[in-house]
């Protein structure tokens, strides 16, 4: 296998024939040793985090495929802590799409003058640029179109997909008494067909989930959710 890219939480290898392998690591994002799914740096290593993230990712991608939502998922190997996916071109140089059900994290830090912490939000969608140097700035629909990153039609498609995906995830978590506050997704275009599809992962590492008002850390979330 040829190494394509070493990421913060996964390494990416080429398998040829329009497929790549994602090798999940135990590194998680955060700062000063504290986990934060919204951070753009690796903050700590948690033993077992990679396998835990893959278990949840496998569950949710298979759920989305069963609901006819396009993803890059092909298969997962829990023993090897790896996932085979369709090769995708990222949107622009990489975008993150956040769906917010509560005012927490960076949203609350930005808008605390206008909202209460944990105030309910109606599946609010925000897009940020993946740019560590500039702190992953939020970008508007008009700016995405003006800079040639994403057309207005493509933005609306991504926004609608985000809400559909996240509502499914939120409903699935609610079956176990878990409350999704926010979640970060990534999208790309199928390298063969050009279709916009969900890529990356869906795990405790890119969402904030609470139970009875208490935040659940990623490994505990996987145990609560998958048992």
State the separation between the terminal residues, measured CA to CA: 33 Å
Contiguous low-pLDDT stretches (5 residues minimum) are none
Provide the succession of SSEs. Answer: EEEEEEHEEEEHEEHHEEEEH
Proportion of strand residues: 35-45%
Question: What profile does the largest beta sheet have?
Answer: 8 strands, antiparallel
Helix proportion: 25-40%
Radius of gyration: 17 Å
* Average predicted local confidence, pLDDT: 93
**Care to count the β-strands?**
16
Specify the number of helices.
5
Shape: globular
Structural class, from secondary structure content? alpha+beta
List the helices and strands and how they pair.
Layout: E1 2-6, E2 10-16, E3 19-24, E4 27-31, E5 34-35, E6 42-45, H1 49-66, E7 73-77, E8 82-86, E9 88-90, E10 95-102, H2 105-111, E11 120-129, E12 138-139, H3 141-146, H4 152-174, E13 179-190, E14 196-199, E15 207-211, E16 214-215, H5 218-226
Antiparallel strand pairs: 1-2, 2-3, 3-8, 4-5, 4-6, 7-8, 9-13, 10-11, 10-13, 11-12, 13-14, 13-15, 15-16
Helix pairs in contact: 1-5
Concise summary:
By secondary structure, this protein is α+β, with helices and mostly antiparallel strands. It has helices at 49-66, 105-111, 141-146, 152-174, 218-226, and strands spanning 2-6, 10-16, 19-24, 27-31, 34-35, 42-45, 73-77, 82-86, 88-90, 95-102, 120-129, 138-139, 179-190, 196-199, 207-211, 214-215.
């Amino acid at each position: 296998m040829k190494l394509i890219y070493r990421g913060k939480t996964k390494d990416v290898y080429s398998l040829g024939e329009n497929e790549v392998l994602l090798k999940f690591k135990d590194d998680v994002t955060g700062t000063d040793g504290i986990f934060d799914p919204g951070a753009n740096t690796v903050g700590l290593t948690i033993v077992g985090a990679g396998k835990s993230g893959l278990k949840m990712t496998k569950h949710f991608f298979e759920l989305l495929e069963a609901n006819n939502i396009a993803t890059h998922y092909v298969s997962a190997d829990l023993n090897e802590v790896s996932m085979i996916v369709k090769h995708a071109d990222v949107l622009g140089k990489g975008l993150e799409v956040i769906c917010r059900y509560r005012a927490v994290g960076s949203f609350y830090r930005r808008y605390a003058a206008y909202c209460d912490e944990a105030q309910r939000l109606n599946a609010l969608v925000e897009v940020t640029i993946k740019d560590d140097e500039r702190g992953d700035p939020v970008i508007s629909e008009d700016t995405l179109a003006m800079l040639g990153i994403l057309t207005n039609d493509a933005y609306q498609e991504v926004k609608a997909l985000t809400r559909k995906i996240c509502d499914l995830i939120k409903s699935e978590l609610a079956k176990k008494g878990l409350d999704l506050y926010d979640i970060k997704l990534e999208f790309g275009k199928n390298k063969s067909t050009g279709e916009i599809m969900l890529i990356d992962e869906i795990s405790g590492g890119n969402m904030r989930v609470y139970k009875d008002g208490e935040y659940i850390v990623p490994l505990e979330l996987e145990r609560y959710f998958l048992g």
